[in-house]
Write a structure and sequence with these properties.
This protein has 263 residues and is α/β, with parallel strands linked by helices. The chain folds into 2 domains: 208 residues, Rossmann fold, CATH 3.40.50; 35 residues, no CATH class. Helix content is 47%, strand content 11%. The chain is built from 8 helices and 7 strands. The chain has a 7-stranded parallel beta sheet, with helices on both faces. Helix 1 packs across helix 8, helix 4 packs parallel to helix 5 and helix 6 crosses helix 7. The chain is globular and about 50 Å long. It binds NADP nicotinamide-adenine-dinucleotide phosphate.
Amino acid sequence: MDLKLYGLRALVTGASRGLGFATAKKLAAEGVLLVINSRNEDHLHQAALKIEQETGVRPLTVAGDVSQKETAESVVQSAVTTLGGLDLLTTNAGGPPPAKFEDLDDTAWQNAFELCLMMHVRLIRAALPALRQSAAASVVTFTSYSAKQPIPNLVLSNTLRAGVLGLTKSLSQEYGRDGIRFNSVLPAWIETERVLSLMENRAQLNRSTIEQEIEKQAQQSVFGRMGTADELANAVVFLLSPLSSYITGVMLTVDGGMYKALY
Ligand SMILES: NC(=O)c1ccc[n+]([C@@H]2O[C@H](COP(=O)([O-])OP(=O)(O)OC[C@H]3O[C@@H](n4cnc5c(N)ncnc54)[C@H](OP(=O)(O)O)[C@@H]3O)[C@@H](O)[C@H]2O)c1
């Protein structure tokens, strides 16, 4: 199937590994002109090389912490300047740390607010002028199924991800007439470094092993396994593509059936 992505211009943040990397690689394979971002310049460079080896397309890189206001704006500006415009944006970064509510002070909440909510706000705000010029503008915000179903020991994520859904839905309404689509993906237990470190944390709390914790979580999926980053990326790439041109304001859970409620 032709996703009609060839030649479009994209910025993928949080893309040196995990879900962002898998998304960037699939976009590159579709012939998208890409800028990728993460904080660690070496890791980002390695990711760009790997994408080139696997797809023949070398993404450009802009390192920087997108939870910081000025950096988020300058990452977008660099991407727009380098690509000569912007059609596609995925807003993604790392997740907040696991913790019990009583162990979190105001600084921890403020940091999580910058990372989990303001990161999306600032990247999108900076990208809007370029997206308005695009005939195929599409934004996908990466959130979590924790926005629908709280995850134990992750109150920062459970609280702030819900705000991203409110933001994404609001923007889908506000900018539809500008031809810009906004959708969210809500991953659950897709095996990445982040998930392995959360499983390590559970293993310490429960005096078990990482393997046992992965197995317990995997059993919550109707398939009895965790997902792969490629499976999440397939959903993102579809939502970014012109093939989903009449889809906006959607919150797509990619969780192997872990979320059991109707809505
Ligand atoms: N995997 C899942 O099942 C799952 C489920 C629900 C929600 N999520 C959320 O989805 C997002 C991606 O998940 P993941 O599993 O791919 O995480 P991951 O394995 O930790 O990868 C995060 C990526 O983002 C980059 N990054 C982290 N903080 C950044 C920042 N402030 N600015 C720019 N780049 C940053 C990291 O590279 P650098 O270290 O070089 O910056 C890395 O490339 C996270 O927010 C996670 O909480 C994931």
